[in-house]
Amino acid sequence: MDLEAGPDSPNGGGGGGPAAAAPPVGRETDDSNVQKDLILAYKTLGVVFGGLVTSPLYVYPSMNLSSPTEADYLGIYSIMFWTLTLIGVVKYVCIALNADDYGEGGTFAMYSLLCRHADIGILPTKRMYLEEETLLRSQSTMGRKPSKLGKFFEKSITARRVLLFMAVLGMCMLIGDGILTPAISVLSAIDGLRGPFPSFSKSAVEVLSAAILIGLFLLQKYGTSKVSFLFSPIMAAWTFTTPIIGIYSIFHYYPGIFKAISPHYIVHFFLRNKKQGWQLLGGTVLCITGAEAMYADLGHFSKKAIQIAFLSSIYPSLVLTYAGQTAYLINNVDDFGDGFYKFVPRPVYWPMFVIATLAAIVASQSLISATFSVIKQSVVLDYFPRVKVVHTSPHKEGEVYSPEINYILMVLCVGVILGFGGGKAIGNAFGVVVIMVMLITTFLLTLVMIIIWRTPPVLVGLYFVPFVIMEGSYVSAVFTKITEGGWLPFAVSMILALIMFGWYYGRQRKIEYEMTNKVNLELLEELLARPEVQRVPGMCFFYSNIQDGLTPVLGHYIKNMSSLHAVTIFVTLRYLLVAKVDQRERILIKRLGPNGVYGCTVQYGYADSLSLAGGDDLGAQVVSCLRRHIQMSTDGRSAEEEIAQLQAARLAGVVHVRGKMRLYVGNDAGWFDKVMLRFYEFLHGICRSALPALGMPLQQRVEIGMLYKV
């Protein structure tokens, strides 16, 4: 069989927000837990809110304003205030953070949550094993009568495919966020050099920004643990200094700025500017950048810690900072092209430049790390070709690194800076990414309300209608920027979606072939009963994708080798649509009938590490579990004899066998199969092998080739 469901490192990390699952809400009632949440809230400043808190650097410069007036700036500030309040506070902090999948956030986690509460997934492993998945039944409410909407999705394969497409598109757009956030954040920060030094050219800013990002990407392999203690102080300095400057600007330039909180300024803004006002939404949407990453990073910290940090520092900081910028611009209406550095007082210009540059680097780091996590999540769910994913910290499961993804991101980020140059074009692309992820989250969250939470229809409507109208307006505005840079995230997303669909389609066809041609126990006994087939000394781990039956490669192996080891253990790695699997449920053992033949299932959630407890390789831990299984299920002398046979086989030698399967596409196949399956074979040929992820010695590995005709 072709073991193709895991990252290529014994330390594969988590996805979406890959740290340990947050403790259940409501348990932290004593003072020590409150103090812990406050500490975690401080730490979130350096990890979760990077893109959000650096947004004042590029929001105003991204707008294409034409002869703005005081009324225009008041309307723009009112739009930003209510966008931050409604989307940031109401949608994400108060609602979306509750839609976690055992502590994990993001579109894939929400998709997983929906799949666990209704049979609406189309992932082969999910639908194939759902009826026997006792772990999922114990962790969900599968026994509850599904809602009408849930029944509709269960009956409609088209609806399920659309749901999957939405989850995949949200993930692809978040990866695009990981490309654009470092580019626009660092470029906007370094652009501050052009104020004091007018001779410092735009090209020099771009080259210096690219150099900083290259250095940042080259340091990724060392992990963030060694410098992460600086993240929170840097972001705290940024978060608390910018509103102080904002307050100074408010009193100095326009003390009545907060009258713009009244929504009637928004109405007057659109009545006065009409089409141009609608187009300016493509710039104002950037004020909420990072909220989508905040939700995806939920697994790094508890929900309560994120809520405390956002409501006590991030939200008031942004409100005051944007108020101060707007107050300055009302008195300096043409300075919007450098809306941040122009409103910084000269005496503190250079300290703020240093803090802004460091904050931009930290913000870039947070999105790069989130991209690694999202890619890992896709790999373990079998939607993306295997890439190397390693842990960079022995203590923090969420710190993961992928060299292939890292260097691809580096090339794309540098290409964006050097190719787009100006911040406006990057801002246009950034706006597309941000609002598309948010709109997808709105739709998925509505499904969660209806199918899982069973929210009354009136409350669902009060959530769905306003946010769809608001975010739909933003989407319509940013789509006008497609030709001005907005095409980039769509291009990246389409490439990623093509890769993911090609990989998924090929994997599905392989699984279909295996299920049709699987070896059952009766056929296995017939093969072993043949006189030419011998049971040879030793222990064999035979890797299989199939639970109900054995891989067709087994029959191919026995017929050609005319042998089977005295102890043969068929190992299946099963990646479940849950965040984490309890250690007691990780390795499941059963006898398969013939003497010395066992089945083993190793279960992982998408936020689990492939390294098992104890530090041993997988083979050693499977043998240990098998020994315990024999002792518990067999009496007295029989157990001793079976354990002795197990020990003797292990001493005689261990071999790990996997199939090296290839899809053979015949001439009678349709053109779609020819294109997609050959594309899959190309991806399969360049991706990493899954077997080294299990820590097996190279000399013990054996590959058996076989063609699957489709």
From TrEMBL:
Example of a GO cellular component annotation carried by this entry: membrane
Family in the record: Belongs to the HAK/KUP transporter (TC 2.A.72.3) family.
Name of the featured protein: Potassium transporter
Biased composition (Low complexity): 1-10
Protein topology in the membrane: Multi-pass membrane protein
Subcellular location field: Membrane
Protein task: Potassium transporter.
GO molecular function, one term: potassium ion transmembrane transporter activity
Residue ranges of domain K+ potassium transporter integral membrane in the record: 41-523
Record-annotated membrane-spanning stretches: 40-61, 73-94, 162-180, 200-219, 231-254, 277-296, 308-328, 348-368, 405-423, 429-453, 460-480, 486-505
Primary residence: membrane
Keyword Ion transport attached: yes
Annotated segments matching region Disordered: 1-30
Keywords: Ion transport, Membrane, Potassium, Potassium transport, Transmembrane, Transmembrane helix, Transport
Domain K+ potassium transporter C-terminal, chain residue ranges per copy: 537-709
